[in-house]
Design a protein that fits this description.
Chains A, B: This is N5-carboxyaminoimidazole ribonucleotide synthase. The structure is a homodimer. Chain A is an alpha+beta fold. Chain A is built from 12 helices and 15 strands. Chain A folds into 3 domains: about 80 residues, Rossmann fold; about 60 residues, ATP-grasp fold, A domain (Dna Ligase, domain 1, 2-Layer Sandwich), CATH 3.30.1490.20; about 190 residues, 2-Layer Sandwich (D-amino Acid Aminotransferase, Chain A, domain 1), CATH 3.30.470.20. In chain A, the strands form 3 sheets. In chain A, strands 7, 8, 9, 10, 11, 12, 13, 14 and 15 form a 9-stranded antiparallel beta sheet that branches. In chain A, strand 9 and strand 10 form a beta hairpin. Chain A is globular, with a radius of gyration of 20 Å. At the A-B interface, helix 1, helix 11 and strand 14 of A face helix 1, helix 11 and strand 14 of B.
Chain lengths: ~375, ~375
Amino acid sequence: MIGGGQLARMTHQAGIALGVRFRLLAEGPDVSAAQVVRDPVVGDYTDLDTLRRFTDGCDVVTFDHEHVPTAHLHVLEEAGVTVRPGPHALVFAQDKGLMRERLTGLGIPCPRWRKATTAEELVAFGKELGGPLVVKTQRGGYDGKGVWVLGDATYEAVEEPVATGVPLLAEEHVSYVRELSALVARSPHGQAIAYPIVESVQRDGICHEVISPAPNLEPRLATEAQEIALTLAKELDIVGVLAVELFETSDGRILVNELAMRPHNTGHWSIDGAVTSQFENHLRAVLDLPLGSPRTRAPWTVMVNVLGGTAPNMHYAFLHTQARDPELRIHLYGKEVRPGRKIGHVTTYGSDLENVLERARHAAAYLAGEIDE
Amino acid sequence: MIGGGQLARMTHQAGIALGVRFRLLAEGPDVSAAQVVRDPVVGDYTDLDTLRRFTDGCDVVTFDHEHVPTAHLHVLEEAGVTVRPGPHALVFAQDKGLMRERLTGLGIPCPRWRKATTAEELVAFGKELGGPLVVKTQRGGYDGKGVWVLGDATYEAVEEPVATGVPLLAEEHVSYVRELSALVARSPHGQAIAYPIVESVQRDGICHEVISPAPNLEPRLATEAQEIALTLAKELDIVGVLAVELFETSDGRILVNELAMRPHNTGHWSIDGAVTSQFENHLRAVLDLPLGSPRTRAPWTVMVNVLGGTAPNMHYAFLHTQARDPELRIHLYGKEVRPGRKIGHVTTYGSDLENVLERARHAAAYLAGEIDE
């Protein structure tokens, strides 16, 4: 696996049960996943020679993030390395412009969009929409970085994104009632499974809370969301997990926001809440093993991200939250605490949604130092 | 953790979520747990200098097995190393003679027993019992090794155990209806949790199948079994998991067979079948964190061990079992396949015991190469 973040850490955790020999290319000797795997390789994933040496002898190569240059991945594939998802698919997770073109070609509902590089193009598109605009860099943004929400697309407002000098994508600012996520896994021979559609709540552009399944979601929309994800997995020939972030609009439509071709924050609930976690199914998919059941194990599962607070030592918060709720599931990523940094997540499950929500929210807030009690 | 078998492997897997930095002393560079942890240390756990170097800087030291000499552990404790469970407790898992003396002193029901070294003593105890006899080495036996079942304690029959030249323990051969196991975890400040009493089926002296909870167990006996385990954990001052293997007799009694002070084969079901697994609770106990709920997540959970068959490559068996049952949970230990060797386990759960049993038994038999279909 290329990339040593928490996704690789939790993928390795799942791979232990499958008997997988996990080789990691990490950004540094002590990043999240490097702490818990045997013999992590430290190197630069943008360097082709590093990638060549690292992938030599791997049965399959997969990713913790979508930032490996696809040109390098094509070279590896031509040299006989098995890359899953392959660069022909991964490019649609890397480049939002290509993604919008392809999805629109497939008839998948998206917000109205326009590629742009100049201030004139952005201002013109803003006028055309007659409402607020979202501007993104076509490549490289994530967790709220490389994204600008403009109330009004004036020349002054578009200055900052245009100043990046990189290709941009402008999109209508959808007036949505909530965000949903559709998570599927697909194997090389085309078997696919779909997890239930979940509701995700973002805070400052970062996934904050996920409720599985999405409360009060119309069955028609749940089916449509799963079909969109399964269609995309097939049409883009994705192997592994695909997460499709969606907007549910006030007029009862769903629109695709973003794609990720790897285990995703909106699927962390599945470790404790589903028969087979997204991490295990990602491995089973890329290893061409039969996929595991995505069935939920409780009526409701809630995941809340734990962000770093100002206190560097979480030991007492850990004691408090575990003692308060013996059924709480805590997942820490081994990261140094920095304010606002994703350092873990908590999961709760049960049959009473209010209770499940309260427990997860309290624990995450307490671990983040937001509660004094 | 000292010892690099599958118990350490699964303990590390649980520790990843807790953010634990796991240091391993392994018997070899590629044993089960050494494959999946960062920087395993290879060394001899019977060598005091090795233990000294390995434990330097550890917050707490715990075990994958009970074979570390307690004399060494006392030296480490005197040097300020935190050892959990401590040697004063561990000795009762190492020495069956001391264990029987202590349990009898505490009024815990045991089979009738006698320490012995000579043929004369064994033959005399056999006559006194007037029935079959079980002879064990007081130290060092496990998984059926170091145990002799003698139908009749003749001088000829006792020859083999006496020839070992080590101290022996003779016990009445209990006519039991089944074997049970009581699993508890206890932390340094005395908090304890008890898992439900399970039924375990042995085959050739090795744990073969575990049903959680034990079907049709009288509530009176379930409570008594949990109380025995909780009493022992407290009275022997055990920190971590304690497994008490029990006989249920035909006249409605339970008797203690063996003790283990570590995660135990009869608790593997808890990974998929309980809110908190035995591995996580062992870590939470030895790290003095509040313990997690031992509540079951399904009416029935069944675990069956996978033993090595004659085919060295399990890949196709793996494909078959995963495709046949998408809810099957497979846990492999990364061990080379050798006939009769524990190489993994499978777990199933659900509300219909017959169905759950059939699925787990089929998968384990298929993975062991016992089924041609």
